[in-house]
From TrEMBL:
InterPro entries: UBC, UBQ-conjugating_enzyme/RWD
Organism domain of life: Eukaryota
SUPFAM superfamilies reported for this sequence: UBC-like
Name under which the protein is recorded: Protein crossbronx
Annotated ranges, domain UBC core: 15-174
Lineage: Eukaryota, Metazoa, Ecdysozoa, Arthropoda, Hexapoda
């Protein structure tokens, strides 16, 4: 079948898939440390993600999130939506929906200028130094932070805010091994570490003999994709290379 006989809507879909694949390749090339993402097997507009926070107030936090791309991504000026999967405590994250306010970094999405890897870098930044987020006035329509209570506590009582963050980190770790909410084979799943099964592979990773997978991570993580990536048992410290 020649390109001329392919329906326009099919051509548009194929072109969009190539652009989304290019975005995914850019994420890999930028080596955004501590963040693992992969598009859904069934829907490339939905990405599954996990962030391992390695420094700052949220250090040792492990948070699941989804990225929803607009239907006409990347041409659409609509900014992608980031939604955290478990209860979060952060000035920029709505405590009811888990939605991250991206208006400070991305008032609109500019095709060719804005990329998913930049969004992931911003994700790193808000957990390393949430106070920095509050130094610039919010661009939200109502002029308020998504979690105004957290914003006020951070500005007035840092110790109290950090205590809330510690609770958030603990609560999220308690859900680390929950059953996947979907049967999508690309969902990032976690398993309890089994030394007999995972120990030899972990050793090969340390020796540089095992391919490192950038879209699954666990203590141990498993999926139908190639390779494995690891976190240190009991400490949730990634052992995979950045």
């Amino acid at each position: 079948m020649s390109q001329d006989t392919v329906p326009e809507d099919v051509q548009a879909t194929i072109q969009q898939e190539y652009k989304i694949l290019a975005e995914y390749k850019m994420v890999a090339s930028e080596k955004v440390g501590g963040i693992y993402v992969i598009p859904s097997f069934a829907n490339s507009l939905l990405w599954y993600g996990v962030i391992f926070v390695r420094q700052g107030m949220y250090e040792e936090g492990i948070f699941r999130f989804n990225i929803s791309l607009p239907d006409k991504f990347p041409e659409d000026k609509t900014v992608p939506t980031v939604i955290f999967q478990n209860e979060m405590y952060h000035p920029l994250i709505c405590p009811f929906t888990g939605t991250l306010d991206l208006t400070q970094a991305f008032p609109v999405w500019l095709c060719g200028e804005d990329h998913i890897w930049q969004l992931l870098k911003y994700l790193q930044a808000i957990f390393i130094d949430p106070l920095e987020c509050l130094r610039t006035p919010t661009n939200s329509p109502n002029g308020k932070w998504p979690n105004s209570e957290a914003a006020e506590l951070l500005m007035q009582n840092r110790a109290g805010f950090i205590a809330k963050v510690k609770e958030c980190i603990t609560n999220n770790k308690e859900h680390l091994y929950d059953e996947p909410p979907t049967d999508d084979p690309h969902y990032i799943a976690f398993e309890q570490f089994n030394d007999e099964v995972h120990g030899p592979v972990k050793q090969r990773i340390r020796e540089g003999k095992e391919p490192i997978l950038t879209n699954t991570t666990s203590s141990a993580a498993s999926s139908s994709a190639k390779g494995l990536s690891w976190v240190k048992e009991g400490e949730y410290v990634p052992l995979s290379m950045d």
